[in-house]
Write a structure and sequence with these properties.
This protein is of the alpha+beta class and about 210 residues long. The protein has a single domain, classed as Gcn5-related N-acetyltransferase (GNAT) (Aminopeptidase, 3-Layer(aba) Sandwich). It contains 5 helices and 8 strands. The chain has an 8-stranded mixed β-sheet with strand order 1-2-3-4-5-6-8-7, with helices on both faces. Strand 7 and strand 8 form a beta hairpin. The longest helix is centred in the first third of the chain and has 16 residues. The mean pLDDT is about 95.
């Protein structure tokens, strides 16, 4: 069941998340070109033409209700992209007052990549804080999931620093960026844990921690 989420713009102290537009292709390509050393496990466009294809694909998936993509703007410049995935309501038993039509029951945060200059800054923490706050406080989801290639130790460490729970490894989960069959490390936060996670993230950001 596809739902219409409207135009979502999330604004923090240093980070703004907004839907990408085709005119972002040059800036997105420039961000991706700073260094590609960390992109072995993540699809990241190379060059303006591929960036336009990347944006078109993301917007097409948004229209189909499969994904809600964002351009990440950090200190006034585009430095990468992230997305909500699996933004669908559950099919509850007939007549259940829990049934939703306008917002998801659960969602996933993924397809996140940053320019080299934005890595190991507060950018990722603040971006995740904005996404999690919207998911739990605006949509009132029951669970947010994050996953990454099980081999991607840097990404797993960044996710763990958010204070989420490691659920385990799903073997042969999906195609990997290198063409192999990927095992994925799964993490999650449920609604009952959000206030505790939120407090820790606010404290980390106030101290300038990553």
């Amino acid at each position: 069941m596809a739902i219409k989420l409207g135009n979502i713009v999330l604004t923090g102290r240093d980070v703004v998340l907004r839907p990408p537009v085709r005119g972002d292709a040059e800036a997105l390509a420039k961000a991706a070109s700073e260094s590609r050393e960390e992109y072995g496990y993540t699809p990241v466009p190379e060059g303006p033409d591929r960036a336009r294809v990347y944006i078109d694909h993301a917007l097409r998936m948004r229209k189909e209700g499969l994904r809600y993509p964002f351009a990440i703007i950090y200190l006034g410049r585009i430095v990468g992209s992230t997305s909500f995935w699996d933004v669908q309501p559950w099919n509850w038993p007939a007549g259940s007052p829990m049934q939703r039509q306008d917002r998801p029951d659960v969602c996933e945060i993924g397809s996140t990549w940053l320019a080299a200059s934005a890595q190991r800054t507060r950018c990722n923490t603040e971006a995740k804080f904005l996404l999690l706050s919207h998911a739990f406080e605006t949509w009132a989801v029951h669970r947010v999931m994050l996953r990454t290639d099980a081999r991607n130790s840097r990404s797993r460490a960044a996710i763990e620093r958010l204070g989420v729970k490691f659920e385990g490894i799903h073997r042969a989960d999906k195609p990997a960026e290198d063409g192999s069959v990927r095992d994925s490390a799964f993490f999650s936060i449920v609604a009952a844990e959000w206030l505790g996670v939120k407090a820790k993230l606010v404290e980390k950001m106030s101290r300038g921690e990553l």
